[in-house]
Task: inverse folding
C-alpha cells in the first residue's frame, strides 16, 4: 500500500482552515491521507457576550471544542498554538513555534508533504502575520541549527496558498481546482461546528444577529446557501485552472503553489490535491 501523505493546513483562527479547505480535507482523509489543522490563535476575542468579555479563557475553551469537532467532521486533527486572538506578531517565539509545529508532523526529518495557508495579502492582521510566519518558517525548516531540539527536515514540503478574493496586490490566480461536490455536505457539517462564530459572533459583527434562525435545520440550510455562494466565486474564478479535476463541478476549492516551497511534479500535485482525472479546457 502507498504511504499516506501528511498535509498540514495553517490558519490564524480556529475556523479558517475548514472554511477554506474543508472539501480538500475530506477528500484527502477519505483516501487515507493524514491532515492536521493548526490555528495560531485560540480565538479568544471572537464574541460579544459579557461572560466571555469577563473571562476570555472561557471562549477559548469553547472554541477549542468547536475546532476539534469541526476537524473531526472532515477526518483531520487539530492543534492550537494558543496565541491570543488579534495578537499574532512575527516575533521569535511564534516563528520558532511554527517551525517546530511543521517539523513535528509526519516522519522525523521528513515532515509534512504539503503545507497550505493563506496569502500575506488579507484584510485581517492575524491572517497577514500568520502567512508571514509560515513564509518565514519555510526555509528554516531545513536548517539544523534553527530550533535544534526538533529534528530538521531533509526535504522541503510543497507549500501552497488557499484561494482568496483580494486584489490590491494582484488577484489570486488559481492553479489547481479541486471539485468538492462529493464532500460538500461534510464541509457544511464541519463549518457548522463553529456555533460561536457562524451563528453568534459573525452575524453580530455584521449587524445581522436578529436574522439568525433559531432551529438547527434552518441554520444548516442557511449555512449551506452561504457556503455554496462562497464556492460559486471560486468555481467561476477557477475555470481555467491548469490542473482541474472536474470543470463541470458546481463547487470547487482553488489553490496555487507558493514558490518558496519544493517544486512538485504534476503527478505529485494530482495526488496531493486528489485530482484523479484531469478535466480538459472547454471554451
Ligand atoms: Zn480568520
Result:
Amino acid at each position: 500500500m502507498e504511504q499516506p501523505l501528511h498535509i498540514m493546513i495553517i490558519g490564524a483562527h480556529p475556523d479558517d482552515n475548514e472554511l477554506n479547505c474543508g472539501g480538500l480535507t475530506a477528500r484527502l482523509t477519505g483516501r487515507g491521507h493524514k491532515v492536521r489543522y493548526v490555528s495560531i490563535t485560540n480565538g479568544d476575542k471572537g464574541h460579544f457576550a459579557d461572560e466571555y468579555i469577563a473571562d476570555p479563557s472561557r471562549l477559548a475553551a469553547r472554541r477549542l471544542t468547536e475546532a476539534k469537532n469541526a476537524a473531526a467532521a472532515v477526518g483531520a486533527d487539530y492543534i492550537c498554538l494558543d496565541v491570543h486572538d488579534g495578537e499574532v506578531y512575527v516575533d521569535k517565539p511564534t516563528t520558532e513555534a511554527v517551525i517546530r509545529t511543521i517539523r513535528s508532523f509526519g516522519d522525523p526529518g521528513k515532515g509534512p508533504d504539503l503545507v497550505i495557508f493563506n496569502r500575506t495579502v488579507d484584510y485581517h492582521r492575524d491572517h497577514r502575520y500568520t502567512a508571514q510566519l509560515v513564509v518565514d518558517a519555510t526555509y528554516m525548516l531545513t536548517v539544523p541549527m534553527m530550533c535544534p531540539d526538533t529534528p530538521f527536515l531533509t526535504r522541503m514540503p510543497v507549500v501552497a496558498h488557499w484561494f482568496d478574493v483580494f486584489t490590491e496586490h494582484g488577484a489570486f490566480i488559481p492553479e489547481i481546482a479541486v471539485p468538492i461536490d462529493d464532500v460538500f455536505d461534510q464541509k457544511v457539517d464541519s463549518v457548522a461546528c463553529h456555533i460561536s462564530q457562524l451563528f453568534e459572533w459573525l452575524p453580530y459583527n455584521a449587524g445581522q444577529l436578529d436574522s439568525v434562525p433559531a432551529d438547527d435545520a434552518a441554520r444548516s440550510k442557511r449555512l449551506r446557501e452561504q457556503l455554496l455562494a462562497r464556492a460559486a466565486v471560486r468555481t467561476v474564478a477557477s475555470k481555467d485552472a491548469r490542473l482541474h479535476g472536474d470543470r463541470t463541478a458546481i463547487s470547487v476549492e482553488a489553490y496555487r503553489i507558493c514558490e518558496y516551497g519544493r517544486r512538485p511534479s504534476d503527478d505529485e500535485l494530482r495526488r496531493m490535491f486528489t485530482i484523479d482525472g484531469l478535466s480538459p479546457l472547454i471554451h
User: Anything to note?
Assistant: Strands lie at 6-11, 34-41, 77-83, 114-117, 158-162, 176-179, 243-244, 252-257. Residues 12-13, 16, 124, 127 surround zinc ion (CB under 6 Å). The chain has a mean pLDDT of 95.
